[in-house]
Write a structure and sequence with these properties.
The chain has 429 residues and is α/β, with parallel strands linked by helices. It is 36% helix and 26% strand. Strands 7, 8, 9, 10, 11, 12, 13, 14, 15, 16 and 17 form an eleven-stranded mixed β-sheet that branches. Strand 11 and strand 12 form a beta hairpin. The structure holds 1,4-dihydronicotinamide adenine dinucleotide, the ligand N[C@@H](CC=O)C(=O)O and sodium ion (NA). Pfam families: ACT (PF01842), Homoserine_dh (PF00742), NAD_binding_3 (PF03447).
Amino acid sequence: MVAPKEALRVGLLGCGVVGSQVARLLVEQSEDLAARVGAPLELVGIAVRDTSKARDGVDPSLLTDDAHGLVARCDIVVEVLGGIEPARTLILESFAAGASVVTANKALLAQDGPTLYSAADAAGVDLYFEAAVAGAIPLVRPMRESLAGDRVTRVLGIVNGTTNYILDEMTTKGLAFDEVLRTAQELGYAEADPTADVEGHDAAAKAAILASLAFHTRVSLDDVACEGITKISADDVAWATETGHAIKLLAIAELTDAGVSARVHPALLPSRHPLAGVGGAFNAVFVEAEAAGPLMFYGQGAGGAPTASAVIGDVVSVARHRVLGGKGPDESSYASHPLAPADAAVTSYQFRLRVDDKPGVLARVAQVVAEHSVSIEAMRQQGTPAGGVANLVLTTHRAPEAALAATVAEIAGLDVVQEVTSVLRVEGA
Ligand SMILES: NC(=O)C1=CN([C@@H]2O[C@H](COP(=O)(O)OP(=O)(O)OC[C@H]3O[C@@H](n4cnc5c(N)ncnc54)[C@H](O)[C@@H]3O)[C@@H](O)[C@H]2O)C=CC1
Ligand SMILES: N[C@@H](CC=O)C(=O)O
Ligand code: NA
């Protein structure tokens, strides 16, 4: 008979939306997990701020306010505190103590990933982070492992559940931004500070991680051009529908002739595009690779249980390495691509203008567009009930961002143009 392997000690840092679900699943699935790993996983402690607070389904004797003491006595540490400190210090202490780490902390990885990778490497342990990008969706592992034999050229994704939920509810139910944000917070999708979601910072952190994985280079949060959804109005949503589009917050990572371009911004997607139909807090990511062609990953990108699923999958992987020996892949950052300037990105614009409703206006606007070597894909005019003023909606063909921005700036200065009411990029056309 084979002797049972010694239990692996798992320490959990944080018992919030994700942590509480990790604790539940570790206990509920302990027999299956032991069979899959080849050794039992023993939850030895949960670091929290307030040990006296009752937590559903959590054994109170596991709670501790000594996170530093906890990581010193673990084989595997799960970090679901969020934020930069003390998460970074605790992860580094875990490595120093010989523990592998599983984290969902995209903000920390996007800001200081290389420090963490080097420390894990020096200690000969694993750093896994499937939950950090697109929650439950297996995406990090396919990028790190399944696509390691291919050349990825582009990643285009909806990677923030909160903003997708907000935009979807605004579109389908006509609800107001603030009202929907509150519900997203109640459902556990939003970050502790939801500014990170609505201003695009959370998606930008994920874009940095995805670009690094896709192009085997280092892209950090500061390298990602970022624009959130706070300026999207009910009018933008209505016009998107009117012109056959859906508004989505997109994370885009591309390898272009000018280098790596990583950016996050709201964009119009034609309603036939598969990403246009991704509703609620769901995420979906397109990956284009030279040999594989297009791939699409879809699933729940936020919420306690879906995120915990990805965390526990990583725990099983790193635990198997402990049992069998060896470790998973290190950071792959051998390629030194330059960063493409933000205004070199090639995209299309749809912009709306309020113009004088009189002859010759369309021609003047079209002339400015042509002078910037931009071409018009569609133009639509609608008079206002009061008369004298018309709404003009122009969609361009693809052109460098710099040319498109200069076009809009010059049009805004025309005497027949009363206001540029909105400028949105169009992707996936
Ligand atoms: N909620 C979600 O849908 C997803 C969250 N994530 C990431 O997972 C991590 C955790 O997120 P949530 O569980 O949603 O956050 P949360 O705010 O619900 O939970 C974090 C918990 O950690 C505790 N905490 C913070 N600092 C602490 C400290 N120094 N000592 C002890 N406890 C401390 C907080 O009191 C809180 O209970 C974050 O990095 C987040 O970005 C990733 C994917 C999805
Ligand atoms: N706040 C994030 C949580 C997952 O990463 C989101 O809304 O997607
Ligand atoms: Na994931």
